Amino acid sequence: MKNIFTTCTSATRVQQPASKRQALMVLSAFLLFLLAATNGSSQNNNVGIGTLTPNASAMLHVESSNKGMLIPRMNAVQRMAISSPADGLLVYDTDSSCFFFYKQFSWKSLCNAGATGPTGTAGATGATGATGATGIGTAGSTGATGPTGPTGVGTAGPTGVTGPTGVGTAGPTGATGPTGVGTAGATGATGPTGIGTTGATGATGATGPSGADGALNAWSLTGNLGTSPPTNFIGTTDAADWVIRTSNTERIRVSSAGLAGINVAPAGAYLKISSSNASYDGLDAYHTSGTTGSAFNAVTGDVQNAAYTHATGYLAYHNSFNKTFSVYGNGGDLAGMFNGKIGVNSVSTQLTGSDIEVRNNTAGANPANIFMRQSTSNTLINSILGNLDFGDDYNTSAQARIQVFRDAASGAGTDLPTAFTFWTMADGASTLSERMRITNGGLVGINMTPTMQLDVTSATTNAGDAVIRGNATGNGAVYGIEGINSSATNDAAAVFGNASGNARVYGVLGIVNNATTVNASGVRGFASATTGSTFGIWGENASSAGMGVYGVATNAAGGTGVEGSSWAASGMGVYGTCTGANGNGIKGLCNNGATAYGVWGVSSTGEAGHFTGNVNIVGTLSKSSGTFKIDHPLDPENKFLYHSFVESPDMMNVYNGNIITDNNGESTVELPSYFQAENVDYKYQLTVIGQFAQAMVMKEISENKFVIKTDKPNVKVSWQVTGVRNDKWANKHRVIPEVEKTGEEKGKYLHPELYGYGEERSIENIKPTPKEVEPR
């Protein structure tokens, strides 16, 4: 008890001034009470106050029915100044009128705490929140404002005297000049309006007599009577020109030699006309009195000199068959001859590259036709209907020819089939030879009479020669050879190549040589049928080491061996199918280079690759991101649900490991150096292994590490940290968990069988499934 007394006294000296007698009296009373209360119970290292039987589990047991126990009282500043407070230290804060206890590095308030409910099941350890700022007690109330002091005593000083007004007077105003002398005269009165009405118009006087003729036989301006053509005329009687003027400008002149000119001096023709006004023609001739079935014309030209072949030509001609012609030539050595370019319905600005241009200006898609016709008396089998010959001045005979002739008899006299042939003259030859023929049935033969739709034969056998060669050298969408097949019959082909040689021979060889060509094709196949299993190009191989279709790109800078493209909705650029056991529909092989791809799928709007079925990857799968995609559990008909591969709506990264705390119960976990650059929104999870202990995150992640603390030393802890990706790619491509189904996807499922539906409700059925190709 001596120790207790000494300790308490010492404590009392610290807390109370020793000079005050009241403090000594209170201390003495407390010590006497304590000695009486402890009795022999102190032998059990517990103390009872107000009871002789303190509870064995209590170090201090206090009982009273009319008093309490007063905990140390202090303000917030004093509380915060306590050095190294122990966990569980209890004080009463007078600033906030509340109990505070110290726990795990901070003071905890007991105010406003409700009754403690039953302990729930232990949940997963949540992330430790950041430590809040230490609260400081409320500020004391502001003291009362002191009374206002009295107003100072004293009178205001007198107002100063106003200074005198400035000395000086204003100068006098100048005198006003006198007003002008005289008054304005009075305005005279307006006179009265005149009286009376307007007089009647006088009668027109009689017409005076006609004046006498100025000269004998003068022409009157109003016409003449009694003229005689042999003796009365307008003109000259001497060797002078006769002129007619209007507005004093010469309009018509008849020369003394009998040449006439209208708006131009007559020369070189008996009638010469000039029009300088765009609104008028040089000559406009009409014929309006002709009748149906009769021949007539507006202008006739006729050469009748006996020394020449008689020739007649007409302008605006109508024949007895009621056909009209702008120009009609009849007779002569030639019906017509033109020295220059000829245009029929052509536009003069377009007639620059051709000597003859024929144009149909009738509205609508009407062709321009040139008709070469044989008379009916000469229409015989194997007779020539027409030749279009070509040559030059070095040879009077034709050097090339396009010919149309009757090639066979027919059932009716009016139905005689024709053929179309093309002829050329070989170098050094003197006669024409047929090179190509198009029969009446549409068969085409080159260097042969055709029996197929296109028959070609070559007379040369040199190495490298081809019977048909397609060479595309343009800059647009050009094709070396294009074959189009619209037949519904099995095994029909747009282009069929058959190579039977033993060396490097080709059924079809297509070459594109122009480096600037866009989408040019050495070989292109096009199947235009809208139904059925048609093929633009069919490649078939019967050898175990051969290939049906083989494409190779030989340029070191790049290129494509085989490319497939689809422009139709839900179409396929390349479709590979395999009907043999353990075969491959499509196989891509590329072993050269770190960025070589066996198969490369690219899509900016859809999917670069789509697999229906199991996928096996032998190797490493690298990705920018990944999700699963399922029908939304809450709205499977209308929505999809996406999650990242960790099956979280976040693009989450997971890091974990095991540590053992040191003798102080602490351990620092170091994360990868890129952790904070790659992640945000960290989550923590700690699990103690091998014993019961408490573990906490004492310091959150900073400088790519965090600190774990346990309430016991040397504790094994399994930790896990997750973060949400914060790299540029992830920030631009965040996963959207819930997505509306659109268009034809509405009402359909990725896995309809899970919802009690058949394949008719499958999204896979939106795209038509390609039919398998039957081997020939």
Annotation field: number of helices: 5
Helicity, as a percent range? under 10%
SS class: mainly beta
Number of strand segments: 34
* Quaternary organisation: single chain
Radius of gyration: 61 Å
**Unreliable residue runs:** 1-20, 37-42, 770-776
Notable characteristics:
776 residues; mainly beta; six-stranded mixed sheet; four-stranded mixed sheet; disordered N terminus
Q: What does it look like?
A:
It is a single chain. 6% of the residues lie in helices and 24% in strands. By secondary structure, the protein is mainly beta. It has a 6-stranded mixed sheet, with no helix packed on it. Strands 3-4-5-6 form a 4-stranded mixed sheet. It has a 4-stranded mixed sheet with strand order 7-8-9-10, with no helix packed on it. The N terminus and C terminus are likely disordered.
